[in-house]
Design goal:
alpha+beta, 229 residues, 3 domains, two-stranded antiparallel sheet
């Protein structure tokens, strides 16, 4: 629209060794350059990203006043026409002008979702994470990346009990519950599951095994056998 080389426009805005640019002058006088010229980038035909500035309406008027003669008249006419088209587009609801911007926003949103999915997958890769939590992370990662529930969340299982709760039921210590469970090989998916729980004496979460009802019965049977001896 300016009919002037891009590097010359940059030189006018940013200045050179022998003179100040418009942006520096505005800044030195406590004026906000972005009210006139907004830093941006564009890609050329080779795919290289180059620096540029987007002109606001104030910026266009500013530049128009810097041009004289035929060049100034043509530039003023073009920018006035362009802004008029934009205003008409907004009034009539025509979305053709901001269509490219909308696509850019959608692309950024997709990239953000992919990054979110990758973070969830990275967490799930931790070998210390209980399998149930890993399934949840996989499910949410798939949903974040595709917007669809491709991988279902794990089904709610039966009620679980902590070692402390079982100890109170059977009148033994939580440590004894753990020792018996290890002896009977009860810390499997058949008799319970690992969950995240807050450590007692450290400010962090640890994987703790919680037991199903069947495990309680196995421990009770073991205790009864021991008492009969």
């Amino acid at each position: 629209m300016l009919e002037i080389k891009h590097k010359e426009i940059l030189r006018k805005l940013e200045g050179a060794k022998d003179r100040k640019g418009y942006i520096q002058i505005l800044t030195e006088h406590q004026m906000v350059p972005s009210d006139y010229f907004i830093p941006s980038t564009y890609k050329d035909e080779s795919g290289k990203e180059n620096k540029c500035y987007l002109f606001t309406k104030l910026g266009c008027e500013f530049i128009a006043n810097k041009f004289t003669g035929e060049k100034g008249v043509l530039f003023t006419a073009k920018y006035v026409k362009r802004f008029n088209e934009m205003e008409q587009s907004i009034k009539t609801g025509n979305k053709s002008i901001p269509e490219i911007k909308q696509k850019e926003i959608e692309a950024r949103l997709r990239n953000a979702k992919v990054r979110q999915a990758n973070i969830l997958l990275k967490i799930a890769a931790n070998p210390d994470i209980p399998s149930t939590y890993r399934q949840v992370l996989y499910s949410y990662a798939a949903w974040a990346a595709t917007g669809k529930q491709i991988l279902p969340l794990p089904e709610a299982k039966q009620h679980t009990y902590s070692a402390e709760e079982i100890g109170q039921m059977l009148n033994i210590s939580a440590n004894m519950v753990g020792r018996i469970a290890n002896k009977l090989n009860l810390k499997t998916s058949e008799f319970g599951e690992y969950v995240w729980d807050k450590a007692k004496h450290v400010d962090k979460q640890v994987a703790t095994f919680r037991y199903y009802v069947d495990a309680i019965e196995k421990i009770r049977e073991y205790l009864n056998l021991q008492s009969d001896k």
